[in-house]
Structures are given as C-alpha cells and as structure tokens.
Amino acid sequence: MIHQVHGELSFHLATPEVSLDVTCRAGHLAPVVFHLPGGDVSPYSLSPWRPEEYPDIPPLLSVLRGDFFCLPFGGQENGPPHGDPANAEWHEISRSDDSLCLVMDAADTGARLRKTVSVHPGQHAVYQENVVSNLEGDFSYGTHPVLDFTGIAEGQARVTVSPYRWASVYPELFSNPADGETQCLQPGAAFTDLREVPLMAGGTTDLTCYPAREGNDDLVMMAHYPASAEQPFAWSAAVMDGYVWFSLKNPVDFPCTLLWISNGGRSAPPWRSHHLGRMGIEDVCSHFAEGVAHSRLDILQKQGVATTRNFRKDQSVTLRTIQAAANVPAGFGAVTGIVPHGHGEVAVTGESGDTVIVPLDWDFVT
C-alpha cells in the first residue's frame, strides 16, 4: 500500500506490533509507531516543514524524517549529499504481511541497492537490511535515524551508547556562524565520557541528558570496541517517556556512532531555527559527516578506526541493523547495558539496576 504521509508518498507496512512508512522518494523510514503494552509510541522525527515548501533543495532535506541509508555518507563531488539512496526513488519489488523489499540503481555511484524492512511476530522492532552490489572502490556509508525529543522536558531523556575506545567532537566548526549557525561544543575535543564533553565557553556538558543546549547544532563521534562473545553487537539507546528506543549493529560493519545534536542551531532555510529537540543517533563507517573524499584519507588509521569500506563489483555486501522499543519502569535512568538473554531475547539494564527482557532476534546483526 502506498499513501501520503507528511507530504510524501510512502510505502506502508503494519503488523499488530509495529506500523511504519518508508518514503518512495529517498527511502526515509518514518513515522514508525511501536504498539507497546503501555501504549503507542512514535520516536522518529518528522521535519517541521513539508516537502512542497522546499521543492528546489535536495530531497534529503525536503523529505527529511526518521531513518535512511546513506551511500556515500556525507557530501560528494558528483551527487547529492548522503548519496542517491537518501535522495532518489526506491521501487517496491516484493512485500509480505511483515516485510517490504525495495530496490534502487544509484546513478551517482553505479551501485545496485536492495533494502528489506521487516517486522518479526511478537516483537516491537524494525529489522533493516541493505544489500549493496555492483559497486567498486572505497566508500563511506551509514544509517541516519533521527529521533524527536520535543515532547520531553529539558534534560529528562537519556542517551547512551555501548563502550567506545575513541571519541571526539567534530574536528572543525560544525556550525558556521557565517551561515547563520551556532554550536557549543569545543571543536576537536577528545572525551572519554559522554557526561563530560568540553564546551567552547569552557567547562563541560552532559550529552546523555536531552533536550539541552537549545540554539545549537553539534556533532560527536564514538568508535566502538570490537564485538565479543559476551557483547556480540554494539548498541545505542534513548530512554524517552516511559520507554526505551534502542538500536543494534555489528561494529565491523558500523564501527562508529555519530550523535547529531540538532536543537535549533541552524537559522537558514529550511531549518529556520525550528529544528528543535532532535538527535540523529547514526551508525556509520565514515569520518564524521565530512564526505567520502575526506573519509578516504583514513585519518583515524592510527586509532584503528575504519572510515571507509572497500567494495567490489563482483561481491555484494549486506549491512543490517535492528531498531526497537520497549516499556521501562519509572526511574529506569540511562541504559547501561544491552546484552543477549539467550536466543531470541536481549536484556536492557538501566542506571537504576532494573532490567527489562525484550524479545528480539539479535543474531540478525551478528
């Protein structure tokens, strides 16, 4: 089924656990409604403008919502920012009651992409698989889920990621005052704790508490530890109002997590300082969002952090993520760990010491 959502034609998929839409143009996933036992929740952002208001800007920005796959990640010389997968038309080739399969032939890179979005019975989760073929060379890539925290009191949501071995604020000015932009984090500042990230004005700020620091757009990146038998995936999590949203990935495929902290720091169209209380919690193989040419410089080689992957035309590459939601008790606090709980479940633990068991086929990403 195709219908209009927030000004954009979208593929629709609905099960008793999850209802979701993927835009035909640009392949942006949102809204997603998780039908949790405690009530429906819809964590993904819809931009505060509609596509028809800005017909002449890249579809990435006019359509902007939820999650989308980027190849390459960031800018490029001969194509749109974040690549055709985040801007061009996707075509449905098959569907079932709980899955949707889309394809695209990307004009910018020559890649063939097959995206499968699925929901598993009895689970409040979205499984995404992007298969890349017919691509030659070194490319950055990533996912780009953007969550909406605007309905939450200042600092009351909690954002955390799995343990990381390297972390930094974007090395240059991420928000340029000459373009009507502002940021508050110190460019290039290294950190070891998301609760103590250096500010331009001195001191530190706690990035785990959100919404916060209104009037700024900032970017940080963290490189995860390799997977282990005890921790076979990397994770990111946002505790919202009575529930947690979380994502799982293989750190070989997605070595880093970016936090794009977008809270009104851009005044030019289409932003107009109205893109408030959003955060991109993005799984990437990239050097921040600097573009594929910069990522190919392999600046983080000494740190052992891959910023591109080598693709070959005669080999396909499969990239998978899981994004899920679950109710949590009052006072749960920030997520401190997500680990397997046998087969078909994960255990999500909060600062309070409480643990919720979530049905999930976590081995999808391992």
Structural category: mainly beta
What is CATH's topology name?
Beta-galactosidase, Chain A, domain 5
Total count of helical runs of at least 4 residues? 2
CATH C-level class is: Mainly Beta
Mean of the pLDDT scores?
98
- What is the chain-wise order of helices and strands? EEEEEHEEEEEEEEEEEEEEEEEEHEEEEE
- The radius of gyration is 19 Å
- Overall CATH architecture: Distorted Sandwich
Within the largest sheet, what's the order of strands?
7-8-9-10-25-21-20-14-18
Task: Note the overall shape.
Answer: globular
Unreliable stretches:
none
Task: Give a concise summary.
The chain is mainly beta. It has helices at residues 59-63, 292-295, and strands spanning 2-5, 8-14, 18-23, 29-36, 39-41, 69-70, 91-96, 99-105, 112-118, 125-133, 137-139, 141-143, 146-148, 157-161, 164-169, 197-198, 204-205, 209-210, 216-224, 234-239, 243-249, 256-263, 278-285, 309-311, 317-327, 335-340, 345-350, 355-359.
Record keyword descriptors for this entry:
single chain, 366 residues, mainly beta, Beta-galactosidase, Chain A, domain 5, nine-stranded antiparallel beta sheet, seven-stranded antiparallel beta sheet, 2 helices, 28 strands, globular
What do you see in this structure?
The structure is a single chain. With about 375 residues, the chain is mostly beta strands. It has a single domain (about 1-365), classed as Beta-galactosidase, Chain A, domain 5. It is built from two helices and 28 strands. The strands form six sheets. Strands 7-8-9-10-25-21-20-14-18 form a nine-stranded antiparallel β-sheet, with no helix packed on it. A hairpin with a 4-residue loop joins β26 and β27. The two termini are about 30 Å apart. The model has no long low-confidence stretch (mean pLDDT about 100).
